[in-house]
Amino acid sequence: MRRFIQLQLGLCLYGVAAALMVRSNLGLDPWNVFHQGLSLRTGISLGTASIIMGVLVMLAWIPLRQKPGLGTLFNIFVIGLSMDAALALLPEVTGLPLRLAFMTMGVILTAMGGAAYIGAGMGTGPRDGLMIGLNQRLGWSIRVSRMLIEVSVLAGGWLLGGSVGLGTVVFAVGIGPLIQVFLPWFQALGRETRVAPSP
């Protein structure tokens, strides 16, 4: 139960973080650049675009022989729903200092949310699973797989009108080191839940 709660909190943080970056209007992470572009072109909400793409990406697991976990399914829906809920509550912000603050909080909360759901150990997200599948089935390195996927969705999202800017660069540079900082603590919480209680 504790791991499940950690998973849900992590995914909700991820959605709130994405909404903060949207409100900063300083650029999004590659996948949300694509989701935003899709949203602008179709009129669907950003969260709905994220959910639809999550389902489609998970279907791409089939030829790669990846198996979703409980966390994979929650990842698809909880992030999209929490993103839309946060966007409905967060105001538009003006002034560079406040926009920078929203962007910074967005990157930090993304790292915390990512570390929490990874540390819960209940299945990878659909986009991470695609990267792992390409590595296992085609022999591509994780680095190459991730780079090709994210460059492709970033370029596609930019062409669709998604927001690329300072936030995109800060996310790309900062997300890895920040997850590395937060992950050991959340992994420790996850391990605690696997230890059987004393009789």
UniProtKB/TrEMBL annotation:
It holds the Pfam family DUF6198. InterPro entries: YczE/YyaS-like. Keywords: Membrane, Transmembrane, Transmembrane helix. The chain crosses the membrane at residues 43-62, 69-90, 96-119. The keyword Transmembrane helix applies. This is YitT family protein.
